[in-house]
Design a protein that fits this description.
With about 400 residues, the protein is of the alpha/beta class. It has 13 helices and 14 strands. The chain binds pyridoxal-5'-phosphate.
Length: about 400
């Protein structure tokens, strides 16, 4: 018997839950792609996104996922033979570095493991040693979606400044925009990449790159091999379709507009705060479970835990039956582990975007029921802890 006959809930770290309002905005006839609504909507999307990410710089949009945005950013400011310093705190940093390597860039990995944040002191030391400024860019991940870790980007910039190094700071915010506080200009980020399918609550398909004047100058001096990724013609677009190097992603733009309407109405500070409360409820629950039995949090330091995704591990205990119970008996889909030593000995809870207390508490209570149904040992008081955190707000 399965009890799963309501609306299924996806708590995977992307794509996130798509609001009905976003789906409904996309359910319409094809629009004029030369003038009218779509043109106005697109410019308002850029305006609101710049507010959300805290920049007065430029923004471009590509029809692609996060990997495309990764490649777009690299293509504009680096060329084969250039060196980068890649700060690794989980598999997404490695993924971006690998992609750079395939483009002929020479990435140097500074490894910080899979459960602790970047150490600014090590970065400062490495950059001071680069006396001839061979390193063209420092590449980091804000929230790493595999480890559930959040890096302190302002501290990273401070380390680069302390070393007096001119490298560009490039940050992957695919998991964090719309979930975590991010202040591009205040934190001194030169290039930031994100995508629409996580905190921005829209089906996968829009990749964004934001950049400042410093990055634009580097791009102007960088020979381009790909006209599609080149951001210059998009920024300087004479005709609307130049912004997309062709047909606009029509329905995605309507969907993204609806999602941004929701974010702007709530207020970005409130959006960040809501994610902070939900993340806290989830980590407090896991801490209680971990008092007895196999489950524990990957990130020990509470200041380094992401507000967008939580990675739960075990020492060699297979969580596949628990995930299957949640999905088949209750309609709750949890995330697999990725980029760790194991795919089965734990799971991830995505908590990005369109979520409220019934969804978060419902997911936690469902996992709690799964632990009981499968006789997996766990500490008491987990749900009471979550409920208290939601009550405190
Ligand atoms: C999801 C994600 C990506 C990759 O995005 P895709 O759309 O799957 O290509 C990159 N970086 C981070 C931090 C992510 O969470």
């Amino acid at each position: 018997m399965t009890l799963s006959h309501g609306r299924d809930l996806f708590m995977t770290p992307g794509p996130s839950v798509i609001p009905d309002r976003v789906l409904n905005a996309m359910h319409r006839a094809a629009p004029n792609i030369y003038e009218g609504d779509l043109v106005d909507i697109t410019s308002s999307i850029f305006g609101d996104l710049k507010t959300i990410v805290g920049t007065k710089g430029e923004a471009v949009l590509y029809i692609c996922n996060g990997h495309g945005a990764w490649e777009a950013a690299l293509n504009n400011v680096l060329q084969p033979g250039d060196k980068t310093l890649n700060l690794a705190t989980g598999s997404f940093a490695h993924g971006w570095a690998d992609l750079a390597g395939k483009m002929g860039v020479i990435p140097e990995i500074l490894e910080f493991g899979k459960s602790s944040a970047i150490d600014p002191a090590r970065i400062e030391t490495r950059l001071r040693a680069d006396k001839s400024h061979e390193i063209k860019a420092v590449m980091a991940t804000h929230t790493d979606t595999s480890s559930g870790l959040r890096n302190d980007i302002a501290a990273l910039r401070a380390a680069m400044d302390a070393a007096g190094h001119p490298a560009l700071l490039m940050v992957d915010c695919v998991a964090s925009i719309g979930c975590e506080r991010f202040e591009m200009d205040n934190w001194g980020v030169d290039i930031m990449v994100t995508a629409c399918q996580k905190g921005l609550m829209t089906p996968p398909g829009l990749g964004y790159v934001f950049f400042n004047d410093k990055a634009a100058k580097v791009a102007d001096a960088t020979p381009k091999t790909s006209p599609y990724w080149d951001w210059a013609p998009r920024v300087k677009a004479e005709y609307f379709y130049h912004q997309f190097s062709g047909t606009a992603p029509t329905h995605h733009l309507f969907g993204q507009r609806a999602a941004l309407d929701m974010i702007m109405a709530e207020g970005i500070e409130n959006v960040w705060n809501r994610h902070r409360v939900f993340a806290h409820a989830i980590t407090a629950t896991v801490e209680k479970w971990s008092l007895a039995g196999p489950l524990f949090l990957n990130i020990e330091n509470p200041d380094q835990r992401s507000n967008a995704v939580t990675t739960i591990l075990t020492d060699g205990f297979d969580c596949t039956p628990l995930r299957q119970w949640c999905e088949q008996q209750a309609g709750l889909t949890l995330g697999l582990l990725i980029g760790l030593d194991t795919y089965t000995d734990g799971f991830r809870i995505g908590h990005m975007g369109h979520l409220n207390p019934p969804m978060v508490l419902g997911a936690l209570a469902t996992i709690d029921a799964g632990l009981k149904a499968l006789s997996i040992p766990h500490g008491d008081g987990a749900l009471a802890a979550a409920s208290q955190i939601i009550a405190n707000g």
